[in-house]
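Sequence only, no structure available. Ideas?
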Amino acid sequence: MAATRFEIEKFNGVTNFNLWEIQMIAILVQTSLKKVGTEKKLKNLHQTEWEELDEKALSTIQLCLANAVLHEVLTKKTSSAL
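Reply:
I predicted one. C-alpha cells follow.
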C-alpha cells in the first residue's frame, strides 16, 4: 500500500494562518485524525488508543510548523493544546 504524501508550506508565523489552518485540517481529515485534534476524548475509545491517535495528530501538526514556531510550542503535549 502506497503512502499518500501531503505537502503544505510550514507555518512560520508570517504566512497566512487561516489558509495554513484549512490545509492542516484537510491533512488531519485525510489521515483520520481530525476528531482527535479538535474534540475531547471519544467515549468509544480506550484511553491508550486515544493517546496513540493524539500523539499521531500532534506529530502531524508539529511537522507542519517551521522551527521557530515549533520552538514556541514545545511544551504543548496534546494536539488540542497545540
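The mean pLDDT is 87.
Hope that gets you unstuck.
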